[in-house]
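Morning. Coffee machine broken again, so started the prediction first thing and wrote up yesterday's gels while waiting. Chain of 392 residues, entered below exactly as on the submission form.
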Amino acid sequence: MKYNFDEIIDRKNTDSLKYDLAVKMGKPEEILPLWVADMDFKTPPCVTQALVDKSRHGIFGYSDTGNDYALILQNWFRRNFDWDVKPEWLVKTPGVVYAICTAIRALTGKGEAVLIQEPVYYPFSESILINERKLVVNELVYCNGEYWIDFEDFEKKIIANNIKLFILCSPHNPVGRVWKKEELVRLGDICREHGVVVVSDEIHADFTYPGYKHLVFADLKPAFNQMTITCTSPTKTFNLAGLQISNIFIADRNIRHRFKQEITKSGYSQLNLMGIAACKAAYESGSEWLNELRAYLTENLNFVRDFLRKKLPQIKLVEPEGTYLIWLDCKGLGLNDKQLDDLIVHKAGLWLDAGPMFGTGGENFQRINIACPKAILEKALLQLEQAIKNTI
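Came back before lunch.
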């Protein structure tokens, strides 16, 4: 490979949420972190250079994007997803969770219900509850190591709770599903019939494994385009989360107006200057790096799969179709969630994301981030293996 993803980079003392705040967040100081969804790889050199160039200029005043920014986004989504986005659809925010909270406030009132599919990325439920909305869950069905949508329950929950907003996770975090066209179309048809706006979180769209392809929900039918807020960002793809930049696409003029009004109410205006520079550089020149990264992640996934099969058969890999966040079924260990957490944190010395935080259906699961050098991943699994041998 041209890029060295095996390089181990010391991230301590860099104000890293992942590496520097363990004790503050209730974990042992020397714990090995594979939890939060950022990568232990350097961003592409083209991004670093763009940030260096901005720094050398030395002026960091109010900034915003020009016509070239929209063109770069158009090229990226057309080239990678066959999706033709229009410049007027674009609304820029500092993050996808910020956009989700904005959509909740813009399109629902206090006490009204919002639908999600758990187990799912935990800020979905937090965003609903902190904004004083009613949380309604269409639990994903887990059967024979795979996850499926209960469409009958999905529609029943919409009708029974007068749902007007549904938050879709696609590809799904943490279960790793890359939804099929027929699944997305069926969801969309139900939402259209009942007047439900869809907030589609597609931040992991650039990470699918061989044999799977991400489909943009809004692009599947013209009607879906007019009822969807599509949330995208280069931050997961190119490891830019600290630069706070997301690109939200809203085709419907009324929904877009309400969304932008809510942003204004929050007091937010222009994007981070460095985020703009990083996004442009990544989408213009980062494809080669991304292709090599995908190949490396596939090898990491293969390593985890083989390790579990040979040395930790009690833990089952929920086979991911997308994302670099792997969902592990730990029921075979025979532990409750408190015991499982103690085993992983205090005996294995690992910081993963415990399944219950992802909501209904997360019991006895753990999420592990494999976007790290293979040596770190191997160290983590060996520590886990030894802890299980000493405990069970």
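The first strand starts at residue 32 and ends at 33. Going to sketch it on the whiteboard this afternoon.
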